[in-house]
């Protein structure tokens, strides 16, 4: 069974806010909890790199969720800049292919070798968004076969590119670990506490079930950030994760 501190260290709170002030105020209400902060596109595009520095100064570990997907040289440069920023983890899209994902790892090494980064952030790849259903995968994205097979394929490709893990739904974690090993990191959105609304997610599970399934990190947004008391909501989730 997880301790409270271990459980808190697995939670990444999605700060999906349109401006820095609201994001920092929410983060301050969770300071000292031991959880991560996830900075996504909405907040980063509004507030820029300074929001990462602001949150790092408060002691939070940061997952920068920008899902880079471009030609390899562009991704290499972007990864170099992100490594300089001092985030703890960032992601690229697995659909960009082996060369693109390898370029992200190279960009991190460039920053380290130049002395522009104190340490290397973890780099992970998005497999399939948790809003993607089997129908969307086959009929709209155009990938045939089972969704789990597509996810595992991207996970194995990310591992071959030298990345440390993937973003996937909690429903695919066991298959990913079986294919890539227990040390290969899984970051799982689509987490909804008992009784919470599914929102726009298709492949979801509870925090307790996600932990039981072997995931390393749980991305949780609205169940915490939209609560009247975010700290109380987080506390309830931690209880759910640690109860025997």
Structural features, described:
Helices cover 46% and strands 15% of the residues. α5 packs parallel to α6 (98-113) and α8 runs parallel beside α9 (173-180). The protein is of the alpha/beta class. The mean pLDDT is 94. It is globular. It has twelve helices and eight strands. It has an eight-stranded parallel barrel, surrounded by six helices.
Identify the quaternary structure here.
single chain
Report the total helices: 12
What's the β-strand tally? 8
Q: Percent range for helical residues?
A: 40-55%
**Major sheet:** 8 strands, parallel, barrel
Q: How are the elements arranged and paired?
A:
Layout: H1 4-8, E1 11-14, H2 20-29, E2 36-40, H3 41-47, H4 50-57, E3 62-68, H5 72-85, E4 89-93, H6 98-113, E5 122-126, H7 134-141, H8 147-160, E6 165-167, H9 173-180, E7 185-188, H10 207-212, E8 217-220, H11 222-225, H12 230-242
Parallel strand pairs: 1-2, 1-8, 2-3, 3-4, 4-5, 5-6, 6-7, 7-8
Helix pairs in contact: 5-6, 8-9
What's this, in brief?
With 244 residues, the protein is an alpha/beta fold.
Kindly list the characteristics that best describe this protein:
alpha/beta, 8 strands, 244 residues, 8-stranded parallel β-barrel, 12 helices
